[in-house]
């Protein structure tokens, strides 16, 4: 085994899956999470089958599915409420798994955090890596409490605002995508049993995904700045959804001030031409590839990153060669997702572009992922 003692920085999807996968292979794992309270964000998330496969690989899928909602179709609507097409989604994780799953992020996080504790990972909350010093056979890490410790490898999964990315001298930084998104966790009807996307309305697009027996999360893609119009969040979201009907009539009528909702600008980043590692420190997950959720693959790719990296660094071999091979192995799938997502964003913003065909590109991207090696 190339590494026996690993520091994982960041406890989002990437960090938690990496910590579980490494600990299951007998690696001594320390996980440093900057947040003093380790909680899952309250929003819903749409995860395609390849994320389910990552969760299955670490034995987490059945536990996650106890609360989540799995399904195999996607419904395309016109904003008027007319159902245009309900069609099957590519099984990106294999035919034996749901094509898609909707879940509360906090439900997924709870399962992964429970597993981390069960596996005896040394979890340090309120902790960050302040600096590191690479040596041929180890890396010395100084934490924010001033202590210095040695590890065989640091896997930094500290998200799109990654400090480690900058510490490694990577020149890429996050950029605005030109889109903003409102999301709300709210009630659903039994008929709203798969993801649905609505085009042709006043905003870029709207949609929802069922995340449990009676809840969905709904979203509307809009301009990247929240207007200063004096409306509360619930009022603003209802205003934006006024042009969407069918199941959205139910969603709009049921949104209340107590629902979990927010607005955020969507940013992106793709480190595709610089190394992700320096010596024994590597950045992965959103820290090197974050994209707008228009194919709903960001979290799925993070889960793959984590699982593949745990597989590779627990093989014998030269660590520098392994980390270089890891980045090369991840690049083709990430290119499909990030480039496809940014093309879709461009078509959302410029819908009259000749040849624009978002439905075709979404389907093609997922079919490509289903056919490509991980
Ligand atoms: C609006 C929106 C909707 C999305 N919807 C979907 C979707 O439906 N499906 C999908 O697959 N993907 C979706 N994504 C993408 C997905 O959320 C991300 O790809 C994924 O959550 C990133 O995981 P991560 O662990 O790499 O980073 P993060 O989730 O950002 O986790 C980083 C962690 O590191 C911690 N941290 C940060 N700095 C430090 C530090 N210095 N030291 C220690 N810890 C640190 C943070 O506190 C955090 O816990 C969406 C993204 C956005 C923005």
Could you characterize what this model shows?
This protein is an alpha+beta fold. It has one domain (5-174, 268-371): FAD/NAD(P)-binding domain (3-Layer(bba) Sandwich), CATH 3.50.50.60. The protein is built from ten helices and 20 strands. The protein has helices spanning 13-24, 49-57, 61-65, 105-118, 163-167, 233-240, 247-254, 298-313, 319-349, 358-371, and strands at 5-9, 28-33, 44-48, 69-71, 73-78, 83-88, 100-104, 122-125, 129-134, 139-143, 148-151, 153-156, 175-187, 195-199, 205-210, 215-222, 260-270, 277-278, 281-283, 289-290. It has an eight-stranded mixed β-sheet, with helices on both faces. Strands 8-2-1-12-19-18 form a six-stranded mixed β-sheet, with helices on one face. The protein has a three-stranded antiparallel β-sheet with strand order 3-7-4. α9 runs antiparallel to α10. The longest helix is centred in the C-terminal third of the chain and has 31 residues, at 319-349. It is globular, with a radius of gyration of 21 Å. It starts with a strand and ends with a helix. 48% of the residues are buried. Flavin-adenine dinucleotide binds at residues 9-15, 32-35, 45-47, 128, 157-159, 163, 181, 264, 266, 285-286, 290, 293, 296-300, 302. Residues 9-15, 32-35, 45-47, 128, 157-159, 163, 181, 264, 266, 285-286, 290, 293, 296-300, 302 line the site of flavin-adenine dinucleotide.
